[in-house]
């Protein structure tokens, strides 16, 4: 048994969860917040047999999209002057962890 944990951009979460559920995977959803941008993420947890891990990851990959976002950045130009300069960064996509489950009991 494996535990798939994926941190997904909040904009993609419902689509990912819908497609996993459509394929008969049971999903637990946790609301989480990212550290760098402090934006909403969703962490999903799916317990699966080892031979279906690739199917879960494929669904997550297909429905989690990376996107560009502009954020303000400051850099000092001397004499304490910090102008705001927008910087383009990539956000979204998914970070996926696959862990072994030593014991599983449904109570």
Keywords:
107 residues, alpha+beta, Alpha-Beta Plaits, two-stranded antiparallel ribbon, 6 strands
What can you tell me about this protein's structure?
The chain has 107 residues and is α+β, with helices and mostly antiparallel strands. It has helices spanning 10-22, 53-63; strands at residues 2-9, 28-33, 40-48, 66-74, 84-92, 94-100. The chain has a single domain, classed as Alpha-Beta Plaits, CATH 3.30.70. The strands form two sheets. A four-stranded antiparallel β-sheet has the order 2-3-1-6. Strands 4-5 form a two-stranded antiparallel sheet. Strand 2 and strand 3 form a beta hairpin.
Mean pLDDT: 85
Helix run count: 2
How many strand segments?
6
The shape is: elongated
- Sheet with the most strands, sense and barrel status: 4 strands, antiparallel
**What sequence of helices (H) and strands (E) makes up the elements?**
EHEEHEEE
Structural class: alpha+beta
> Can you list the strand order of the major beta sheet?
2-3-1-6
Radius of gyration using CA atoms only: 18 Å
How large is the share of residues in beta strands? 35-45%
From the N-terminal CA to the C-terminal CA, the straight-line distance is 17 Å
What percentage of residues falls in helices of 4 or more residues?
10-25%
* CATH level 3 topology: Alpha-Beta Plaits
Oligomeric state, counting identical vs distinct chains: single chain
The CATH class designation is Alpha Beta
Could you say how many structural domains there are in total? 1
Uncertain residue segments: none
Q: So, CATH architecture?
A: 2-Layer Sandwich
């Amino acid at each position: 048994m494996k535990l798939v944990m994926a941190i997904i951009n909040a904009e993609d979460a419902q689509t990912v969860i819908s497609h996993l559920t459509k394929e008969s995977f049971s999903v637990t959803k946790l609301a989480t917040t990212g550290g760098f941008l402090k934006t909403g993420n969703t962490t999903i947890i799916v317990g699966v047999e080892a031979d279906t891990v690739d199917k879960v990851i494929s669904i997550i990959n297909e429905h989690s999209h990376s996107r560009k976002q502009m954020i303000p950045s400051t850099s000092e130009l001397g004499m304490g002057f910090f102008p705001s300069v927008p910087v383009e960064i990539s956000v979204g996509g998914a970070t996926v962890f696959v862990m072994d489950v030593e014991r599983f009991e449904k109570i």
